[in-house]
Amino acid sequence: MVTMDNDLHIRRVVHPTERIVTGRLLRFMEGYPREVRVGQPVLLAVLTAAGVVRLLTRVLRSGGGGGGRRFKELKKGPEYLVTPVRLRDTADRLLEVELHGHLPQSALHPGDHVQLTLRPQRDADLPQRIERIVNLTTGQLLTPRTATVWSHLGPPLLLQAALGVLLVLGVAACSALT
Question: pLDDT per residue over 122-151, tens digit each?
Answer without folding.
Answer: 888 999 999 999 999 999 999 888 777 777
